[in-house]
Amino acid sequence: MNPRDLLLRYRKDPRFIITVPLLILAATSLIYYVVQRAKDLSPEALNSQVLLFVLSNINLLLIIGIVFVLLRGIVKLVLERKHGIIGSRFRTKLVVTYVATSLLPVLLLFLFATDLLRVSIDRWFNTPVRKILQNGEAIAEMAQDQSASIATGAAREIAADPAVIDNIDTHLLHVREFHHVDLVGIYRGGTLVKAFTDPRAPIQEVSEPPLRFFDEVQQKGSATKIDVGASGKWIRVAARIGGGPYAAIAGVFIPNTMSRMIDESIVAHKNFQQLDSQRPALKASQTSLFLAVTLAILFGTLWTSIYASRRITIPIKALAEATSTLAEGGYGTRVGISATDEVGRLIESFNSMSTQLAQQRHALTETNRRLDDERAFMLTVQESVATGIIAFSDDLRLLSINRAALAMLGIEQPAPRVDLREVLTGDLAPLAQALCDLTARAPRSREVTLIRGGELRYLELSVARLGAGNTQGWVLAIEDSTQLMQAQKLAAWGEAARRIAHEIKNPLTPIQLSAERIAKKFGGEHPQIHEGCRTIVNEVSQLKRMVDEFSRFARMPAVHMQHAPLAENLQQAASLYRDVKPGVSVSVDADPEISLLMDPEQIRRAVGNLLKNAVEATDRGEIRVSAKKNQQRVVIEVADPGRGVADSDKEKLFLPYFSTKGRGTGLGLAIVHRIVRDHDGQITVHDNSPRGTRFQIELPA
Amino acid sequence: MRIRLVFAALLALAVLPLSAEPRIGSLTATSSNAGAVTVRFTLADAFRDHHTVQALQSGLPTSFTYVVEIYRDRPRWFDEGIGRSRIEVIATFNSLTREYLLNYRRDRKLVRSEMFSDLETLQKRMTTIDEPSLFDIGARRPYKVRVRVKADFGRGFLLYVIPWKISTRWKEVRVAGTAEAAQVR
In what order do the strands lie in the sheet with A473-480? Predict the structure, then answer.
């Protein structure tokens, strides 16, 4: 794994983030410690360009690091604030506070401390030590110069006598004794000619003077050479002898006991001078070192502050985002970040609250779903029952109405909370009045008769108080007892007809026979009697025919249901009434595909009765018979352009013995009604357009 | 008149410190027929600052670094660099033997070491450079070739922290041919 991958892997690791600044601090502290311990280092080391180079580069790297971290943090904060990321403002405040509280004190401390450091360094070199060292060196050099002057005196005395070459030994020994020097000698062009030394002075510890030394002697007349040996220091002075190649040399040996003190004094002052000369470099190195420590602290502080602000704001940001999610309906949202402080407790509370909300919402949803199911069930029941159900408030405002009620009343779906008194108008006005009465006082049920669409309707109403929940009002149940009532009436009329026929028919035959006998016996003599008897016989025959009709009506045969084509039956029924009346035609328009479960004979009879009435009511025009299938119903219509039926007669049209023709039994439409009812059908009468009457028979398909 | 005097005084004050600063002087560059270029120059006022002498006398290694460049002058275009040489003279004083050690390095290689017991001779030796055949310009015409020299003679610190070299200004001269050099002599 390369370093970049390692960095990417560990850069968000808290241990890594904390360790790096600590390592930088430790490294800086180590450098500082080493330099502090480097008191014994030479001035060259302190003034080392390498040290300054290293410190400068460390400072540069730290400055770049600080600028990078700072700029990166600022840019990220600006972008986060621009994009409206939650927690960015809080984080900005934290970072600004951290930086302000760390940057300013550290910078002020750095400025004051470095100034103090420079002043202190300057003060080191303004102490009496300088004078002491200077005087010490001067004394040491004076001591050394004194030896050098003795040697110079001896060398010059040797060189002063050009004849010394001729008597070297004597002269050299004399000078050595006289000047108390440790070395006397003669050199020729750098080569030793003769020399005498004190046996106690170890001349062998130092090397022969180099040629350039003698060159200098030749050029300047004299030269001095100082050499340091193991036992002490040699000061040798050479002087040119005349203008030739010879040079006289004299030397003084300073033993270690003395030369060491001289050297130490000289070296001490020189070291002090070196330090003084390096004062700017010393200040620079110390200031650089202090700057490195300061920058390391700043870097660590900055890094830590940004990291700490992030650590603080991450849970808050997550909490804010989760709150926003929760507000938008995300119940059960949890904050997945753990924290051990107060924010952690806040997160735990939030998670607990969110969980409880989710559970409560789940329970609420379940309850609502159950209620919806129950409501749907009730609606289904309400819609499927044949009983009309209307719920309304105390002030007669509609709460609900089922399909059966709409069908019974023949109205469209009203608007919610509409006043029922505005809906139940016209033919339905008695119903509105009944509602007022039923809700006002007992009894809570009654029967209402309505004429709706020209048809008489018997409705049984009963109300019950609604007391559930906040809803106050009433429930109205409507039972359509029209068919029941009609059936009861028909049954009553049938029974009555049967009894009347029985009671009337029995005496009619004797009456007829008696009238015929009277006419036979007295009719020839008395035309009036004959006429009277004939009238009696005719009327009795009429009565008998009428009684037969009653009997037939009372004894309607049972239907024999079978599948049969409807169009064919209609054609057969219509064929009986074609060309019966001049100017009146009959047409049939029936779908030949319609096949119906019916009693064909009864249906032909019912349609025939309707056609018979239509032909009688029509003076000129076309009577149309049609049949079509409409969903689960087959609708047969007989429409004529005749005189039509008055609205007042429509309610009684299907009752037995009701006739608008002034003749006949009035049983035709009653029979039709009975046949249709026996087929579980329904017959209604309407005004034809533009005139006439239209009978509509609906049969189950 | 008074204003002129004030200006003159200010100008003198401004010029005086400049005149005390080290500078390259007596720069000559001569080319032989074979194209070898000899460079001679001096560093004036190098030891005028007593701090320099004090540092040298204290035993600190004191050095001057001369940077010598030779290039072909191309008007209105970039100059063509031909060669560059770096000459260092480093003097160290032994306070015990009272001798000065002078190391002479060219292009980071030690050329020679010398011992001096005389400060004046040492200073002259450090500030007088005579480098025969320092560069080879080949067949280039000498009058189109120029030599420039600067000396790094110290170190300063910007804001007490940032080290930077203290250098003289560049001094440059046109390379003289053999005949021209003879006339000069």
Answer: A398-401, A388-393, A473-480, A455-466, A445-452
Neighbours of A510 (CB within 10 A): 10
Report helix, strand or coil for A576.
coil
End-to-end Cα spacing for chain B? 46
CA within 13 Å, CB half, A88: 14
Give the residues across from A491 on adjacent strands.
none
β-bridge mates for residue A233, sequence order: A228, A254
Mark out the alpha helices in A385-450 (DSSP H runs). 403-409, 420-423, 429-440
Buried b (16+ CB within 10 A) or exposed e, A177-187: eebebbbbbbb
- Measured CA to CA, the distance from residue A233 to residue A247 in angstroms comes to 22
Q: Which residue in B96, B157, B161 is closest to A266 by CB distance?
A: B96
* Cross-strand bridge partners of residue A30: none
Mutate to test the interface with B, among A42, A266, A273 (most CBs of B within 10 A): A273
Residue A697 makes CB contacts below 8 A (sequence gap 6+) with: A606, A635, A636, A637, A676, A681, A682, A683
Whose CA is closest to A566, among A606, A527, A524, A594? A594
CB of A158 closer than 8 Å to CB of A171 = yes
SS3 A391: strand
Q: Return the percentage of chain A with pLDDT > 90, whole number.
A: 12
Look at residue A220 in the predicted model and tell me its pLDDT.
86
Which parts of chain B register pLDDT below 70? Answer: 1-20, 179-185
Query: Which pair of tokens denotes residue A126?
Result: 């303004």
CA atoms within 13 A on the CB side of A646: 5
Task: Report strand pairing: A398-401 vs A388-393.
Answer: antiparallel
* pLDDT given for residue B15 in this prediction: 46
CA atoms within 13 A on the CB side of A492: 7
pLDDT of the residue at A40 = 57
Sheet holding A191-197, edge to edge: A191-197, A183-188, A246-255, A232-240, A222-228
Q: Which pLDDT belongs to residue B130? A: 94
Task: Return mean pLDDT, chain A.
Answer: 83
Amino acid at A360: Q
| Rounded distance between C-alpha atoms, residue A430 and residue A643, angstroms | 30
Has residue A177 got a pLDDT over 70? yes
B156: chain A residues, CB-CB within 8 Å: 280
Which tokens is B5 given?
Answer: 């005097």
- By the 8 A CB rule, do A276 and A125 touch? yes
Q: Tell me if chain B has a CB within 8 Å of the CB of A278.
A: yes
The minimum CA-CA distance between B55 and chain A, rounded to whole Å, is: 5
The pLDDT value recorded for residue A591 is 87
Q: Indicate the residue type of A465.
A: R
Alpha-carbon distance A125 to A660, whole Å? 149
User: Which of B53, B96, B158 would best serve as a mutation to test chain A binding (most A beta carbons within 10 A)?
Assistant: B96
* Reported confidence tier of residue A271, pLDDT bands at 50, 70, 90: confident
* Omega before A690 within 30 of 0, i.e. cis: yes
pLDDT at B113: 93
User: Residue written as tokens 């009864």?
Assistant: A602
Lowest mean pLDDT among A7-16, A459-468, B105-114: A7-16
Residue A599 near residue A664, CB atoms below 8 Å: no
Interface contact flag, A280 B60, Cβ < 8 Å? no
DSSP category for residue A42:
-
ipTM of this complex: 0.76
C-alpha separations of A240 from A174, A182, A208, A209, B97 in Å: 19, 19, 17, 15, 21
| ∠ Cα B138 B140 B144 (to 5°) | 140
A36-40, A78-82, A313-317, A469-473: lowest mean pLDDT where? A36-40
Q: Do the chains contact at A43 and B163, CB–CB below 8 Å?
A: no
